[in-house]
Automatic annotation (TrEMBL):
This is Saccharopine dehydrogenase NADP binding domain-containing protein. Transmembrane segments: none annotated. It comes from the Eukaryota. The gene is LOC101266790. It comes from Solanum lycopersicum (Tomato). Pfam families: Sacchrp_dh_NADP (PF03435).
Length: 430
């Protein structure tokens, strides 16, 4: 009878947690008012005809209907189609990001440029950032590559001299995940008497998340990179798509297998937030895609996987199959960020959405609005740096980014939000 009583008690707790999470998700659908000074601003979205850039444009037009949006890309037909969706405050500009002159011409009277023309892996320059600095235009990118992010940070002095704010690695992950990590660390410093010990990023996407060839190319290119992680302050190199863990992403997602990948937030969080042990893992569905990634890692030489042109050919080969599978796999996305302290203060954040293609745009738009509202100081910053997104602006950013989520929870004990709690005890609402 005691075991039945415990089962009933824990089941009741789980139900209450889930109900509270569901209510929070409904609250997240409420829009946050946009500052008056943002209205009638002009945002140029490079890669605006792509899935991520287009999703960002749609989200921005809904959050701030008066915002002037320029869809910048190379395909005029796709650009016209996107403009027709956005309405009278949108226009198309034919721009090649390798054409510095054309870039600067389109940024001259812009308030912010959003660089969403990936993939960023193996990119040899930061021409868009250079153009933004040259025209004194605020800059935001959705970079998910460590080398590119490091290169962008090297423009710090130039951005300071031009007096322009710039954020690299914004978006959903990295981006929102970095801000979640920053908030977990900030809260832990207030609530915990222990030292920061370990922070881990876990990401899951069903199929390609509806993001198509770009995310597929990114995934393949990452297989050609050694994974950089940190263990007790020491930088270590690990094999990509190794170190599998089964992670519980909570309500609406459940347990998923995730694998090590080389992602920029690992380095930035280690250096910016001072967490000695940091790593990042990613997994997908259906499960055989994970097996396929492991097979590619083992069968293809790193030189092949680091060659963008060869990877693009591989993407073209796989794309029809991936799209077919995406139709049945869906495009759910989930992020889990875990922070552990030496005194047992363990807290997590979970962010889950049914559609990555929509959520990535909402998340990126949240960063754009934060920058236009003045939360970013001149210089080049990561999202977790207070100069990038001011501490007092984080709550609003996360509220905007979490619109439509099926589960968004921050700073909770793991057992309170997992599908199968691992810990039981008193103080359950602490």
């Amino acid at each position: 009878m005691a075991s039945l009583g415990m089962y009933s008690w824990t089941t009741g707790i789980k139900k209450r947690v889930f109900v509270r999470a569901a209510n929070l998700a409904k609250e997240n659908e409420k829009r946050v008012e946009v500052a008056e000074k943002v209205r009638n601003s002009k945002a140029v979205i490079l890669g605006g005809t792509g899935r991520v850039g287009g999703s960002t444009a749609i989200a921005l037009s809904k959050l701030c209907p008066d915002l002037n949006i320029v869809i910048a890309g190379r395909n005029r037909e796709k650009g016209a189609a996107m403009v027709s969706k956005l309405g009278k405050n949108a226009e198309f500009a034919e721009v090649n990001i390798d054409d510095r002159e054309a870039l600067e011409a389109n940024l001259t009277d812009a308030d912010i440029v959003v660089h969403a023309a990936g993939p960023f892996q193996q990119s040899e320059n930061c021409k868009v950032l250079e153009a933004a600095i040259g025209t004194k235009t605020a800059y935001l990118d959705i970079c998910d590559d460590t080398s590119y992010a490091t290169r962008a940070k090297s423009y710090m002095n130039m951005a300071l001299e031009a007096n322009i704010p710039a954020i690299t690695t914004a978006g959903i992950y990295p981006g929102v995940s970095n801000v979640m990590a920053a908030e977990l660390v900030r809260t832990a410093k207030l609530e915990s008497e222990g030292e920061l010990e370990r922070l881990r990023f876990y990401y899951y996407t069903a199929g390609t998340g509806g993001a198509g060839p770009t995310i597929l190319a990114t995934s393949f290119l990452l297989l050609g990179e050694d994974v950089i992680a940190y263990n007790k302050g020491e930088k270590i190199k690990l094999t990509p798509y190794s170190g599998m863990l089964s992670i519980d992403f909570g309500m609406g997602i459940g347990k998923k297998d995730v694998y090590l990948l080389n992602l920029p937030e690992v380095k930035s969080v280690h250096e910016v937030l001072g967490v000695p042990t940091v790593s990042a893992r990613f997994g997908t569905d259906p499960f055989f895609w994970n097996w396929g990634m492991i097979a590619m890692r083992n069968l293809l030489p790193q030189e092949f996987l680091r060659d963008r042109s060869k990877v693009q050919q591989l993407v073209q080969l796989f794309d029809p199959v991936v799209r077919a599978v995406d139709g049945t796999a869906g495009e759910a996305v989930s992020m889990r960020v875990d922070l552990e302290c030496s005194d047992g203060h363990n807290r997590i954040g979970i962010f889950s959405h049914k559609r990555l293609s929509r959520s990535v745009g909402i998340s990126t738009a949240a960063f754009v609005l934060a920058m236009l509202e003045g939360s970013t100081k001149p210089g080049v910053w990561f999202p977790e740096e207070p100069e990038g997104i001011a501490v007092e602006a984080r709550e609003v950013l996360l509220q905007r980014a979490s619109e439509g989520t099926i589960n968004f929870i921050l700073n909770k004990a793991p057992w309170m939000v997992e599908t199968n709690p691992k810990e039981l005890g008193f103080g359950i609402y602490s």
